[in-house]
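Folding follows sequence. Below is one example:
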Amino acid sequence: MASSSSFLLVALIALASWQAMASDPSPLQDFCVADNSSHVLVNGFVCKDPKEVTAEDFFLAAKLDMPRDTKMSKVGSIVTLLNVMRIPGLNTLGISLARIDYAPLGENPPHTHPRASEILTVLEGTLYVGFVTSNPENKLIWKVLNKGDVFVFPQGLIHFQFNPNPYKPAVAIAGLSSQNPGAITIANAVFGSKPPISDDVLAKAFQVEKKTVDWLHAQFWADNHN
């Protein structure tokens, strides 16, 4: 019995430790610049030879001071994400950055980041933002942000931003707690999956007629990421 108790204790400690480490891999040296030419598959990217690392591996002329063209976006927003795929030096550092441009009445539609929490600050304009808690409460936590305001979106929760001004654009900068936060836009994933999810499944899930699901399937679900 004592042996079983000891085993259970060790298992619980191991599980707790695994949960604590369930994030981007931590660096075991000064840096681990991503070697994008490597064909080795690992969780993240293989390290480039430190002797070959240069300042360019940590730099990108991203022109984040320049507005993006939101006219071609069906949702009226453009997300410019700077992650490890664009800045190899971010590998193992657990951070990334995004600029979001919103047209008048534009939105960054409901989405989740499966691997990151997000902190967002408004640089210009006004944004109505919020996130929804998990089942069963599904409580909406929301706020209207003005220039200089900051809001946090917890990892994995559905969240959004909307520019309520019909005349002026808005701009925000977001920091994310992963080198590759990922994004799942809810409408795109549900109605734009390839192959499409069965009408029977979606009609029952959303409590609508199949013809409504067919119409939604027929829409062009564009990505607003640049």
Summary: The chain has four helices and ten strands. The longest strand covers residues 96-102. The radius of gyration is 21 Å.
